[in-house]
Amino acid sequence: MRLDEFKQRYNLHQLPTDTGPQTHRSLRQAAVLVPLIQTGSELELLLTRRPDHLRAHPGQISFPGGKVEQSDLNYTDTALREAFEEIALPRDNVEVLGQYPMFNTFTGFAIAPIIGVVREEFQPILDPGEVDELFRVPLSFLMDPANRIKRQFSRRGVHYPVYFIPYEDYFIWGATAAMIDRLCRQIAD
User: Fold this and answer.
1) What is the pTM assigned to this prediction?
2) Residue 101 DSSP class
3) What residues are paired with 159 via a beta bridge?
4) How far does the chain reach from its first CA to its final CA, in angstroms?
5) What are the backbone angles phi and psi of residue 52, rounded to the nearest 5°?
6) What DSSP string describes 20-44?
7) Helices (H), ranges, the chain
8) Is the CA virtual torsion 123, 89, 182, 22 positive or negative?
9) pLDDT of residue 48
10) Are strands 61-62 and 42-49 parallel, antiparallel or unpaired?
11) Residues 114, 34: contact at Cβ < 8 Å?
12) What is the pLDDT of residue 166?
C-alpha cells in the first residue's frame, strides 16, 4: 500500500472504538507515535525493541512513546517528544494524521496512539536507556489478517483478547499488537 492510498483509507474509514482491557483503577497517561514511512513503493511501520535491562517490559516491541510530562501541551506533543528522545526522529519530519481513542492496558496505562507519517528518511540515534533496536515491518505484511493472531485470556475472572504478530525474529504482542490490529482493520478494504 502506498502512502496516498493509506491516507485516503485512513480519512474515509471510521475510527475504531475499542479501548482495550477495562480496568477499575486510575491509569497513568501516556502517548505513542505510530510512525509510518514510505520506502520505495512500500509503506512500512517503524517499531522499537526495548532493552533487556529495563524493569518494565524488557525486550518487548513497542512504538516510540512514554508517559505524559507536565510540560507536554497534549498527547501529540508527548508522542513527538518521546520519538525524538528515543530515536532522534525530528518532530517537524512527522505529518500527524490523527489520534486514535485511548487504549487501556492491564499494566496501568491509558495510551493515546498518535498516527503519523515520517516525511523523509532520517538518521536514527537510539537512546540506549530506552531502545535497543529500531526496525521496520511492511504494512502489507501487517494487513494480512493471517499474520495477526488474537487469543482470549482470562485475568481475575475477566476475559479479554490478546494480540500477537510474529514477524521474522520479532514477536510483537500486547498493546502494540492490538494497536496495529486496530489500524489494519480500519484501513482494510
Assistant:
1) 0.90
2) P
3) 154
4) 12
5) -70, -20
6) SS--SS--EEEEEEEEEEEETTEEE
7) 3-12, 75-87, 139-143, 174-187
8) positive
9) 97
10) antiparallel
11) yes
12) 97
